[in-house]
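Changelog-linked ticket: magnesium ion example.
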Amino acid sequence: MTTASMTPSARFSRPQASISRSCSSHLKIMKKGGALRKECSVPPFMEERMFEVKNLTKVYDDGTVALRDVSFEVNPGEFLVIIGLSGSGKSTLLRCINRLIEPTEGQILWDGEDITAAESTQLRQIRRQIGMIFQQFNLVKRSNVLTNVLSGRLGYVNPWASLYHHFPAQDRKLAMQALERVGIADQARKRADELSGGQQQRVGVARALMQQPRMILADEPVASLDPVLAHTILGYLEQMNQEDDITVLCSLHYLDLVQRYATRVIGLREGQIVYRGSREDIRKMTDEEFKEIYGEDARQVEIR
Ligand SMILES: Nc1ncnc2c1ncn2[C@@H]1O[C@H](COP(=O)(O)OP(=O)(O)O)[C@@H](O)[C@H]1O
Ligand SMILES: [Mg+2]
């Protein structure tokens, strides 16, 4: 069992928004194993679908089947969380969605357009609308914070201008606003690698925000951060979800973070969807059920 001290509440740089932190039972799964016995109830879906994954399969060159016939949809405004053990296919799924890796089979429909079939211009148009936040932040370490945030704008600026970092004044203003929003405007001129992990992920959030996306994909965005910082970062994502109408598709590892932020959950195991749950389902979920998704031998680590 691991313990960590917590502060009871947090406040964002935008005064109207605040979150409460309930950090009493972060459950971290340490080990895989066992079989899933049942699949939980499927919630009623809204009609309006912005995004749909159909029968997605990914087989890597070495024969590893990372995703098997995965199908689900994302409705506008959702905060959809993907859960699953390490190696269950979460990163593969998120990376297939913006075609950082090529799926082997299946379709990914964005407003009815198939991302898997999109050519470069169309793909660029679609990618503009989908921001990405990474577990390891993926900042250009030697560039300063402002340049990193401005790179979120690359889908919009003339490629020659972006090559020489000639961003319009309006973009610089937007980048500073994004940094203010995540509370680190005073760090704008620092090199990215001079920042702490929590600050670097705030830059990651600001970079995604700079893109003015319709959807954000976040691949375990808080797995490298302590629980207090995890709430801060997820709080920003929740704020973007609720106030800016940005749909969020995010993988997470801790049950109480999932319960706190998710509006819907899918569980992956060995590349297959083994759980679908609504906000209500996930709030009622017991440690035992959570454990089933991860495996019978999963060891849970509670942080108080
Ligand atoms: N480039 C790759 N080549 C071969 N196998 C890979 C590659 N990337 C991931 N895998 C495998 O695919 C499976 C899913 O991995 P991943 O999507 O990273 O899972 P998760 O993000 O849930 O930890 C794992 O078995 C992993 O070892
Ligand atoms: Mg991963």
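Closing comment: Example verified and attached. Residues 1-46, 297-304 have pLDDT under 50 and may be disordered. The first strand starts at residue 9 and ends at 11.
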